[in-house]
């Protein structure tokens, strides 16, 4: 996203979401019709906000008055003394005089920051500009105000006038994915949110991929280490873009123990009952005195476990041969799948290069095939296949090697890599060889 722009064209909520997705630190200035506000962000969260036409004293005084923490005359006296040349901040002066505790002061500062941000969210016209930097000034001990908390709370407090409208989602309900008309793009990974299309954060994508009719969103958010406001805003954004839909209460097969009806199979019970032997069966011993379960029951008991083992083996084999396709199987995940394949391929090439150079240090030439690296334990047989499922073709002329992945039975030169010892101070014998020179040396005498 551009670091400056027009609020009418982009909107402050989208600007804040992009900054928090990239964990940006710096000052965001927002200029409206009647005021200019500077918002301090640390790792994508708001830690301070100051207005040109509204002092901190005025904002704190309003909060203290609402909360009935300090008498107006006591607060006014502290402000006069502070403006008269008192050392330290106004907050320190209030704490030193025992008018408020440190925790009460920090809570009041946080509320004052939130109220000021609510005013900025109502601005429909104006300009913004972001100045990046890590030198951010804010009150020590201040609990950062996350963008998710700010936007979710603004839905109720502003009633839609802050750019976001609609109810806050229920995290106790279950949700399911909706077939996407176009793929969602992830802020930070696929861009900065300045382009057209649907933009979500990485946390929102993770929650979208896990939603199911059997589990509540709160349970999934806990598994993903998402806080309350992160989970609520993730659901809100996914619902707003029609990426998921609300299902209501989770559909679970679990029932309270006193409501369960246990059906007992009478056949196994009869197998434990002793029956007198029939005439002529006395010499057969206990074999004829017990009744075993029918063969069909035994088969039925083993069908489920056997099928589970077969499916698990098939999934494991598929994951080893086509990891990216198993992790990202859907057509709309093509961009994410390509990015993941490229990253895994680069990591594999780096591992193979280290193994080949280690071999060169011992044998003074590159290996003739991957098998030689496998024999020495430098790589495994799995490393001879590309992460997309294709074999890797390897060729060498002792001082240079080339790896070409096979795609649909053909070598992909675009995805290939070539390495040589030229310029490598560990492997290239020419690296330390200095050229001869006929220039006479110059001697300096003291």
What key attributes describe this structure?
3 domains, 40% helix, 446 residues, extended, 4-stranded antiparallel beta sheet, alpha+beta
Task: Walk me through the structure.
This protein is an alpha+beta fold and 446 residues long. It has three domains: 4-158, no CATH class; 174-248; 307-431, no CATH class. The protein contains 15 helices and 13 strands. It has helices at residues 7-10, 12-21, 56-67, 72-83, 90-96, 102-121, 147-158, 202-210, 217-223, 228-240, 266-270, 295-321, 323-327, 334-363, 370-375, and strands spanning 4-6, 26-31, 36-42, 45-51, 127-132, 174-177, 185-186, 199-200, 244-248, 392-396, 400-407, 410-411, 417-420. Strands 1-5-2-3-4 form a five-stranded antiparallel beta sheet. A hairpin with a 4-residue loop joins strand 2 (26-31) and strand 3 (36-42). The protein is extended. It starts with a strand and ends in a 26-residue tail after the last strand. Residues 253-275 and 281-293 have low confidence and may be disordered.
């Amino acid at each position: 996203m551009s670091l400056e722009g027009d609020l009418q064209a982009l909107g402050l909520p989208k600007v804040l979401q992009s900054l928090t997705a990239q964990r940006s630190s710096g000052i965001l200035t927002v200029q409206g019709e009647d005021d200019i506000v500077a918002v301090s962000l640390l790792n994508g969260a708001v830690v301070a906000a100051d207005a040109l036409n509204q002092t901190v004293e005025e904002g704190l005084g309003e909060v203290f008055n609402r909360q009935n923490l300090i008498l107006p005359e006591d607060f006014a006296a502290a402000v006069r003394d502070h403006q008269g040349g008192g050392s330290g901040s106004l907050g320190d002066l209030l704490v030193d005089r025992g008018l408020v505790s440190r925790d009460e002061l920090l809570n009041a500062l946080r509320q004052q920051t939130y109220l000021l941000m609510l005013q900025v969210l109502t601005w429909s016209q104006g300009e913004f500009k972001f100045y990046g930097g890590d030198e951010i000034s804010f009150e020590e001990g201040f609990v950062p105000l996350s963008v998710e908390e700010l936007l979710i709370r603004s839905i109720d407090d502003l009633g839609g006038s802050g750019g976001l409208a609609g109810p806050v989602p229920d995290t106790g309900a279950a949700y399911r994915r909706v077939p996407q008309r176009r793929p969602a793009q992830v802020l930070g990974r696929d861009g900065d949110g300045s382009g057209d299309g649907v933009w979500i954060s990485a946390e929102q994508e993770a929650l979208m991929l896990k939603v199911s009719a059997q589990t509540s969103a709160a349970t999934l958010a806990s598994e993903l280490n998402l806080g309350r406001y992160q989970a609520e805003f993730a659901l809100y954004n996914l619902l707003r873009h029609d990426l998921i839909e609300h299902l209501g209460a989770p559909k679970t097969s679990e029932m309270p123990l006193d409501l369960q009806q246990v059906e007992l199979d009478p056949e196994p019970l009869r197998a434990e009952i002793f029956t007198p032997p029939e005439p002529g069966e006395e010499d057969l011993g206990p074999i004829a005195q017990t009744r075993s379960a029918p063969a069909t029951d035994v088969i039925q008991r083993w069908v489920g476990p056997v099928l589970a083992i077969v499916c698990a083996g098939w999934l494991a084999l598929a994951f080893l041969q086509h990891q990216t396709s198993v992790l990202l199987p859907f057509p709309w995940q093509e961009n994410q799948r390509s990015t993941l394949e490229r990253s895994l391929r680069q990591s594999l090439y780096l591992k193979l290069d280290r193994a080949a150079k280690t071999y060169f240090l011992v044998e003074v030439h590159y290996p003739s095939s991957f098998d030689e690296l496998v024999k020495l334990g430098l790589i495994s047989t799995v490393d001879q296949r590309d992460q997309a499922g294709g074999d890797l073709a390897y060729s060498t002329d002792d001082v240079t090697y080339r790896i070409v992945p096979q795609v649909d039975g053909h070598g992909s030169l675009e995805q290939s890599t070539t390495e040589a010892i030229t310029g490598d101070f560990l492997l290239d014998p020419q690296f330390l060889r200095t050229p001869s020179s006929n220039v006479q040396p110059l001697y300096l005498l003291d």
